[in-house]
Amino acid sequence: MLATNAEPFLKIGLNHYLFLSAILFSFGMIAVLMRKNVIVMLMGVELMLNAVNLSFIAFAKELGNLNGQIMVFFVMTIAAAEAGVGLALAVAIYKKYKDLNIRAFEQLRG
Amino acid sequence: MGSDVFEITVNFVKMVAIFLMMVQLVPLLVWVERRGSAYIQNRFGPNRVGPLGLTQLLADAVKFITKEEFSPAAGHWFLFYAAPVIALIPATLAFGAIPLSAPINVGSFEMLGHTWGPYIFKFQSFDMGSIGIVFVLAVSSLAAYSLLLAGYGSANKYALYGALRASAQTISYELAMGLSLVGILLLFNTFSFSEIVAVQNGPLSFYFFGQVVTFSGIPNWGIFYQPLGALILMAAMFAETNRLPFDLPEAEGELVAGYHTEYGGIKMNMFYIGEYGHMLVASGLMVTFFFGGYTLYPLLTPDTVAAWFAKLGGTEASILTALVLHVVFLAKVLFFLWLFIWVRWTLPRFRYDQLMDLGWKTMLPWALGNTIITALVIFVMRTKW
Amino acid sequence: MLMEAIGFYAMAMFLVFFAFKTISDPNPIHCALYLSLTMIGLAGVFYQLDAQFIAGVQMIVYAGAVMVLFVMVLMLFDLKTELRAFSRGLLSGFLKIFSAAILAGFALGAATNSIGIVDEQPPKVMSANITRDLSILLYTKYLYAFEALGILLLVVAVGAVAVSRIKGGSHARD
After folding, report:
1. Which residues contact B278 (CB under 8 A, 6 or more apart)?
2. Contact between B149 and B271 (Cβ < 8 Å)
3. Chain C CA closest to residue A97
4. Is the whole-model pTM more than 0.80?
5. Closest-approach residue (CA) in chain C for B145
6. Chains B and A, touching by 3 or more CB pairs within 8 angstroms
7. Which residue in A13, A87, C87, C142 has its CB near the most CB atoms, within 10 A?
8. pLDDT digits (tens, 9 = 90+) for C4-53
9. Number of structural domains, chain B?
10. ipTM
């Protein structure tokens, strides 16, 4: 009943998850390149890290190897720590420049 | 969900029934709170509507539903309406993962000319296997969103401050809550709720410098091993559910009812249902980890209760066993709910800086110390000397 | 097979839609809330991929703590909706999107071609008690990395407090 050339779409394999991960990664990269609010750029970085986590887990499932999941554990911890520091810096920036637009402080001075 | 139509249907009905059970316990709890607090404060509570005031909540529900529906003009309407709904979701999901009674074994039977095979139905909405406690912590941490969305969608400075304070308090006490459970996980060696209850279903037995010591009359409850962990979990649960003595975010007179200032009618009531649902989850967790879950060794375990109904045989015996053990579970949970209500009407409220100091500077170090000492004691006691 | 495919495509559409709304909404608080939904969706995908423990940890760490922190910090600022949330210039915008697309193409092409080299593997069964197996790996083979991670978290915690005390920070000493 289903055409045989629908098989690549119906049998979910590694490539499907990698495609999803690549799309999410490029969305994150677009957010970092195109948005001007510092915190939204940080969110783009978080999205990129999550896309990488997804590809690690997909490989771990494909190869039956738990090391991929351990790597995700470490990436998640470090990304959370970096988000905390990034937000502390963003708060300090806001106090000084009263504005979160990166155009306000993209010139090095002195 | 199940392998054939009968099993899927029964599991679905079971999920809905457990959700309804949680929601229907809330009016009963509110009645207990109003009459109980009145008893503590030496006055009558509601005693006019229905016998002993039991249908007061029904009247209140009708009142709430028929109130005027308003929302602030300047706020963000989607977030404003989403916040009470999001308040209910974590409590519902977490309550579904806690085992409420022993599994029911249904033998083969004939119906509609087809033989339906033997099934095992667990007495919980879904069994999260080897990640039980991680799932409950994960959905409890989503409770902070309803506070933030309520405060932001209200377009009211005081509501926003209340929401920020409440969510800061919530995420601070999540740490102490998670750490206080690590001692129990180290001792019982598993993350799964069913296995934790099964381990507590025996006599008190522990290693003592390499030998196993057993006391046969006393059950193997977690409270005997980890009293400090139980105390920290209880205190952290008070803070998670925003109950007194940690309820500064919703205190009148401090912040004009905090994050739910701009809510009225049924939306406000949904916040309270969410709060009582969280109380139910907290009591369920305390009972499962520290007080033996649905068993009471040596009197009321799945084996001894099944022996009472051995004459009936098969499916009926299993169902009756599960019901009796469910009554045991409910009795323990009701004791803890009464404890929540009792503490609320006894202790005064913490100031906000005292509250945050308590969470970070007192509970977190004690919970960490508890973990380290538990690990050391296990190591010393389980090596063969 | 059909049910798995439907489940995967539903989760994938959910994720891609909310990730797109994250990067394209002018109001930063909405971006943060959409990102939380993306994180929850990712936890669902991890659960489908037999990584149940990592799914739980993703919800606790990302959706429950990191994104709550983002939303709290954004609510403290009085940000008007940015009139020009995106960078100006049509050509530079096009170049940026094009470069992101080329990167995605490279990544996907490399992965697809390298997987084709190895023969088709039978579907692997992940362990039954995933927590036990992950913890055995974490505490024996990766113990050094685990301890280094603990020290890194301590340094980050102290550093975040120190950043808030610099001149102009929220808890500045003068």
Report:
1. B90, B91, B140, B143, B240, B241
2. no
3. C168
4. yes
5. C68
6. no
7. A87
8. 889 999 999 999 999 999 988 888 899 999 999 999 999 999 998 888 99
9. 1
10. 0.90
